[in-house]
Write a structure and sequence with these properties.
- This protein has 1 helix and 24 strands.
- It folds into 2 domains: 1-95, no CATH class; 111-255.
- The chain has one helix at residues 11-19; strands at residues 4-8, 25-29, 32-35, 38-40, 50-54, 60-63, 69-73, 78-86, 90-94, 98-110, 112-116, 122-127, 130-133, 148-152, 158-160, 163-167, 169-173, 182-187, 190-194, 197-200, 206-211, 214-223, 232-235, 238-248.
- It has a 24-stranded parallel sheet that branches.
- By secondary structure, the protein is mainly β.
- It is globular and about 50 Å long.
- It is 4% helix and 54% strand.
Amino acid sequence: MTPITVPVSSAAQLSSALSNASPGHVIEIAAGNYRGPFTISRSGTADNPILLRGAGSALVVIDAGGASYGLTVAGSHVFVEGLTVSGSDWGMRLSGQENLVVRQVRITDVNKGIDGRNGSHRNYTICDNVLQGRFAWPNISASTWDQEGIVVTGQGHVVCHNTLSGFGDALGISQNTTLPNAAIDFFGNEVLWTGDDGFEIDYGHRNIRVFDNRVTNSGMGVSVQPVWGGPIYILRNVFVNQAHSPYKFNNDPTG
């Protein structure tokens, strides 16, 4: 199928394009500010995903105006790239069933970054993004503990080469929903500062890998309280200037 380009240059056009998106649509967002929030509930297919493409994260800004989520992706087989989301509680919510991609996106002026929890999620790719929260170092108080940068649940996810600052738990997983947390990779990520854990791998089941990351200025490096069964792999990471310790082994983790 030949991709179908859908150009948009206003918030109204963007809302319409998202509401009417079909497999193979490439929604091209022109440079400018777009007052949100926005939601895409339509799904592409494995062969013909829907692509939401901004002209560049320095050029396309979704101003969420204080909403709970700036951009919600509720469909499957959807790609988002080349834009900024700003001014919301959470930057993005990913609730589609499978095969979502977020790349080259900037999320700024938020309390929390990308929410990929809740549901039987499979095969998310969240890579090459910049996320900037509102919490300054060295705030390691309890006020930061639930302020997550990137959090996912489910199976088959890749979270790589992101740069994060200003959250509580910068990257990690959360309590299981329909699927046990398994086969999730976190690699090549840079955490500049965060109030609690660089990586929160609590509630992991098996084959979760945290490798080749760097965490500077955090309460803890990696939390595994607990993991159930394993194996969980934590290797070749660099932890610098942790307020408490590099590793948090509480609640009898196994594996």
